Amino acid sequence: MTTGVGPDIALRSIMPAFEGVIPATIATASADGTPNITYISVARFLDEERIAISNQFFGKTTGNLGANPFLAVRVADPQTLLEYELDATHLRSERAGELFDSMRADRCDR
Amino acid sequence: MVAATVNAEGRPSITRGWGPTISGDGYVVVCLTACTGSAMRSNLAAKGRIAVTAAHPVTYSSAQVKGTVDVVRDPTDDELDRVKVHQARFAGAAAEAGATDAECLMLGDLVTVGFRADEAYDQTPGGRAGQALT
After folding, report:
1. pLDDT bucket at B92, cuts 50 / 70 / 90
2. What is the side-by-side order of every strand in the sheet holding A2-5?
3. Is A84 helix (H, G, I), strand (E, B) or coil?
4. N or C end of chain B: smaller count of CB under 10 Å?
């Protein structure tokens, strides 16, 4: 799953928050405005406007993003414990390919 | 413990929750970090839908409840006492994991939110994740 993120803060400046030491959270919303929030194991920096999230067991998250592309991801820097909320828009989901394989390997390593 | 609300455009917001209680008939009271002027504060004031997920920090056993915001108010002294107990336990668990400044995760204004849980789900990672709890 790849998401676009607004530019209020440079994602590169919070790289430690993507190390996965502290589990990140993802919130989505259904078409009727009901939120869903769960923990995720991998939120990876891709570039200044995109992050990638591994999606395992997230039936509700996937369903919500099909109806409403907006999501929020909260990550924490493991050294400072400062938290950052990323307001994002779902771009696409991948089920094969280089990024998918890399994310799967990363998740299995944890 | 984390919570999410949604604004009128469908954009979710996330915050942390502290010192929850849930009654036998499913009424949840929890103190949320929601700074004045924040999107979370606005969403709560609009009394829309809310989701709260609680997870055990070691086993990752997790559950999520959802409902419609019923009450938003300042915390009582008893609720603040529960928040302190919860935060102390949280800080202890964080310290065991090597994080010695967990207070950073506890900053911000607190508001008390009440709602009746009309949905509940197992969120524990694995095959049962997402299944409704009865």
Report:
1. confident
2. A35-40, A24-29, A70-76, A83-92, A2-5, A50-53, A43-47
3. strand
4. C
Nearest CA in chain A to B118: A34
Residue A96 forms contact with B (CB below 8 Å): no
Q: How many CA atoms lie within 13 A of B75 on its CB side?
A: 23
- Which tokens belong to A69? 């592309």
For residues B90-108, one letter each, b for 16 or more C-beta atoms within 10 angstroms of the residue's C-beta and e for the rest, the string is bbeebeeeebeebeebbee
pLDDT at A27 over 90: yes
* Contact (CB<8Å) B4/A59: no
Helices (H), B28-99: 39-45, 77-96
Average pLDDT over residues A16-20: 89
* Chain B interface with A: residues with Cβ < 8 Å: 2-6, 9-14, 48-53, 55, 60, 62, 64, 66, 94, 99, 101-102, 104-105, 119, 121, 123, 125-127, 129-130
CA distance A31 to A37: 15
pTM of the entire predicted model: 0.90
Give the residue with greater pLDDT, A93 vs B99.
A93
Q: Check if the interface score ipTM surpasses 0.95.
A: no
Token pair, residue A60, equals 């509700």
Helix (H, G, I), strand (E, B) or coil at A39: strand
